[in-house]
Amino acid sequence: MTKAEMCEKVLAAKKSAGVTWQQLSEVTGMGAVYVASGCYGESSMPPEAAEKLGEVLSLSDDLVEELQTYPTKGWSMGAKVVPTDPLIYRFYEIMSVYGASMKDVIQEEFGDGIMSAIDFKLDVAREKDPKGDRVVVTMNGKFLPYKKW
Amino acid sequence: MTKAEMCEKVLAAKKSAGVTWQQLSEVTGMGAVYVASGCYGESSMPPEAAEKLGEVLSLSDDLVEELQTYPTKGWSMGAKVVPTDPLIYRFYEIMSVYGASMKDVIQEEFGDGIMSAIDFKLDVAREKDPKGDRVVVTMNGKFLPYKKW
Amino acid sequence: MTKAEMCEKVLAAKKSAGVTWQQLSEVTGMGAVYVASGCYGESSMPPEAAEKLGEVLSLSDDLVEELQTYPTKGWSMGAKVVPTDPLIYRFYEIMSVYGASMKDVIQEEFGDGIMSAIDFKLDVAREKDPKGDRVVVTMNGKFLPYKKW
Amino acid sequence: MTKAEMCEKVLAAKKSAGVTWQQLSEVTGMGAVYVASGCYGESSMPPEAAEKLGEVLSLSDDLVEELQTYPTKGWSMGAKVVPTDPLIYRFYEIMSVYGASMKDVIQEEFGDGIMSAIDFKLDVAREKDPKGDRVVVTMNGKFLPYKKW
Amino acid sequence: MTKAEMCEKVLAAKKSAGVTWQQLSEVTGMGAVYVASGCYGESSMPPEAAEKLGEVLSLSDDLVEELQTYPTKGWSMGAKVVPTDPLIYRFYEIMSVYGASMKDVIQEEFGDGIMSAIDFKLDVAREKDPKGDRVVVTMNGKFLPYKKW
Amino acid sequence: MTKAEMCEKVLAAKKSAGVTWQQLSEVTGMGAVYVASGCYGESSMPPEAAEKLGEVLSLSDDLVEELQTYPTKGWSMGAKVVPTDPLIYRFYEIMSVYGASMKDVIQEEFGDGIMSAIDFKLDVAREKDPKGDRVVVTMNGKFLPYKKW
Amino acid sequence: MTKAEMCEKVLAAKKSAGVTWQQLSEVTGMGAVYVASGCYGESSMPPEAAEKLGEVLSLSDDLVEELQTYPTKGWSMGAKVVPTDPLIYRFYEIMSVYGASMKDVIQEEFGDGIMSAIDFKLDVAREKDPKGDRVVVTMNGKFLPYKKW
Amino acid sequence: MTKAEMCEKVLAAKKSAGVTWQQLSEVTGMGAVYVASGCYGESSMPPEAAEKLGEVLSLSDDLVEELQTYPTKGWSMGAKVVPTDPLIYRFYEIMSVYGASMKDVIQEEFGDGIMSAIDFKLDVAREKDPKGDRVVVTMNGKFLPYKKW
Amino acid sequence: MTKAEMCEKVLAAKKSAGVTWQQLSEVTGMGAVYVASGCYGESSMPPEAAEKLGEVLSLSDDLVEELQTYPTKGWSMGAKVVPTDPLIYRFYEIMSVYGASMKDVIQEEFGDGIMSAIDFKLDVAREKDPKGDRVVVTMNGKFLPYKKW
Amino acid sequence: MTKAEMCEKVLAAKKSAGVTWQQLSEVTGMGAVYVASGCYGESSMPPEAAEKLGEVLSLSDDLVEELQTYPTKGWSMGAKVVPTDPLIYRFYEIMSVYGASMKDVIQEEFGDGIMSAIDFKLDVAREKDPKGDRVVVTMNGKFLPYKKW
């Protein structure tokens, strides 16, 4: 079974079950984006979480097992180097516009190094606003200083 | 004067003055990343902030004026569609890996639409951690529902 | 069901029914381009409109449901970054030739910001002309000023 | 003199003169976007309009002459096949999302053919709206039916 | 039915019938290249010509109908921006080498504008030559002057 | 001296002399497009033609010599794989739409092989037409059959 | 039948028959590389050679026929503009490193023109060498001088 | 001094001296293509050869020294992944058409491995032919079997 | 059978057998990465190793045979020129950052030449470290000096 | 001063001083590749090492300072996504061929995660071998397990 086949089946099961990523987040005790990325085949799920998902979504055993295997990442973007979906593109645009500035501000504060995308977590929240609610995306990654050898 | 020429001169002035983006943020009352993006020529500065920068960094009048003109954005990435700098690339990778998941979680919560990259702000903070401090990037954009006509 | 599968089936049903986008526009009370984009899987249809389409085109329930789900957009262009179809290419060419000028004129009038492609509508009309009728495309999007923070 | 050199000098003269494209449109009796595209080196100006611009902006004779030469178009986008500036990108996105639909609606109305990008004009206007003013872009091009031979 | 499926079936029927494009050109009274482009799914056939083809090639009714629908063009080149087939590549090379020169010569003669690729026809002929026969390709398109507005 | 420098100087001399490619064609006895391609640095001029040009355009000796050197071709398109200029793009589009058809028609007539782009000539002519004059481009290249070994 | 399907079947038949390209070269009296390119669907086989192959490899009649049709070339490289296979890449690298030099040496000897890739043949041979045998690739193409018109 | 600067100066010196690569090949005792590649900055020259060139072309000492430094290769192709010059392109085309076949024939003869592009030499020769002389390019590289570990 | 089909079947057999690449390395006496690359269809296995794998993984005869055929390499990266998987991307990044430096250090030590990627082996090992274990990748390739001819 | 300007000056100073990276490695107590990457502008040098280099290479103060600033990385590869230099390309090829295998072997040993390219070091060594000395490249990076949140 490929991750693409797993993804298709798990998303169909989620639709049948009528549950949201937020609810699956509560059931598994993991972040909603992380649970989604596991089901999209971009992350590996811990065994208990995979089994919990298996129960809630009535998944077959091999699906539960596949959720735990380590993926080759980035496949869900196809061959597109610039994303076409407007929601995802906006984040690409943000980096295009503010990337150099963020780099400077981060490195002025932390020194020469980067924010890890591996020892990393990401949350999405709603901020109420009378002029229109706002999406708040929080990225939290360990600072990794460049080793000089 | 092009934005590229302005950028080169303002960064040199900042280096001479020995100030950080954080300090320029306090002086201007604007976010550090925003101030930096103005100096990198990717944003336009409000008049008072531009003048404040002019004082602190001893900029000539035409530099202060150029800081206020509206830029053509994205030029500082050159022709690179995939960023090569490791710090900036990590954000591209995050979208490649978690993009589809974020989209799903955001739209399940807010409906069909996107997070604005225009009515938008971005902050960088340090989170103390004994295993290594962490970079916290917070993106905050208005939710824009798709108009159906 | 993927949006691609939905698209294929809905277009076939429209062909069998022998109706035009203009007629479907009148039936649903929505713009012809919007209705088409919903059937092409690039927009989500409001429930009533989807049901109305279901009736007129004799669509199965799952097609009516799929018409309402939120799409990942831009898929119908495949991996082509420059469109090959001559009609669509002309709009790409217009931006290549007049893009910088439009940007300048819009920002001189409205300030630093953009025209929204989300809070946006698009109409196509015919202008009679003895030298050959003309296509009039009207794009109408909310102006979004850049937030400075 | 290259069009790029001409563009740089004319834009500087316009800045010194403190006039807007709207004002130059009135002076020359041509559309604001067209006048801008002439100054950006993407269109050729008619002699009288070029001379009028020469007067208002105090341009040298060779600039007035260069404004009238026929350009090689699309140079102002550099080597970027996907535009990076957010305002211009939104129009690219609109085609990515609504392109197939527009094509269908236009051809259902007019037959097999395209909207000309040569026998073509484009206007930008402001639509007052209490929820935020709107940008209205009107494109008007002759319909060209495919010759069958 | 997609144009790709139509193309495959019509080409197979042509092979069975053992006729050339030249013969189909005579039967339909249309140019050989145009008839071929209709069968390749890159042009729409007029009803009488489609029916004539249907007779000669014993095509089913839905093939005859599909031949008349308006195509999304350029699909037959796949995702290749530079053609790989040597015969087709040579025309791309000709533009790469002589393109700027042709543009200059055409515009010096006709003014600022282009040759239409829509109100356009193309013929292929053989020129006898003792040193090796020659291929003569004649392209004939209406000159479209740039509208200035 | 590079071909780019030569090109810039020769075009300036042609402008000063106020002659057209058509007139230079008559003076040199060569095709207008060929003369232009020599001056654009995409072809090498025969000695007599180069000297004739030198006289008419008052070129320095090293320019006359450079016109005769063998060029590295295709440089005048820069790094653009898809041309942006609308006049040149139309020929690219023609190949995208009619390329497979032309190939078929040519090979059905001549056998497996190609039209040479080296033993090749190209002319541009005007065809009077009350509905708008037409551009006629004639390409004439030797047929080269594939050697089977 | 597509060339891709033909290729798959002929290669399977060759494997079953346990013959080498060298042996097929002897049987058909054609070069080993040419025979292989015919079976890979990149060249058309002469009738007698195709029939000879049909006998030796026990091919069906439609395979023998398909071997003789004229291919659209370059398909076997997929969409890869830079080859990934190390053996094939080395030839691409050789052109990248020695291309400009070869061009100069050839044109100094032959004049302005190219080596034909159509009236062309290619052989592979082994050169014994105690330090490790060597691959000798000989390319032999007609020199085609640029026609000046 | 960069290799690009060296290249420009050495080629100018060669032009002044009025010598061919063939003559420089005899003077240095090295292959004509190799000498050219050294002067184009794509290969390093052995000290004696560099000094010999220095004498014949009256090069300054730092040019003679630069000829011996190790280059970063492939720069002379710029950013072009597909070569535009027709002579060089033909070799790219040959690999596109015959690459898979050559690979097969070589590996059937030599086993799993490649032809080295490093322990490699390349010669160009003229083959007299009444129907038009032929270019013969001979590539000779050591076979390198894949190490299995 | 294609290498892709072989890969899918062998990986499934390995999963069923519950063995690691390390264990298969011991069984076959070959490096773990090499064994894996054989099963991924990027290397050819020696007969004994292939048979050993056939036993341990209960592979059919044609799988054992296919493991020994010579692959066309690089297919497992699809059309991606920049790898998207974070683990693989890091090695691409390392070359982007340290490539020019490595080249310089290697050539200063060994002379003008390269490290072979054919007469080459690669090992992965774990280095215990209290601050977090480390991955040690050792690449070992024969130095190949450029042949000067 | 840009990193590119710094690089050019430091490399010239190194050449004048006649020292190798190995010697600079000993002087500074840092790895040869790291010192080179600092001078190439791809890494930041620690203050003492930068000063040490300043002494040995007689660098001006602003060069010593620039060596310590944090670079935007990857610039030295220009816009090339596939490296053209043969030595550097071979490492790209290794990833293309063995990347998926390495990933599998590393993750089977360490779990789901990656090798850090930041907390990382790289050494180059010579391995004596009678059949030709070998280049040994050792990469050593911390294993970073994916955080699950």
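Residues 86-145 of chain B form a domain with the Cyanate Lyase; Chain: A, domain 2 fold (CATH 3.30.1160.10).
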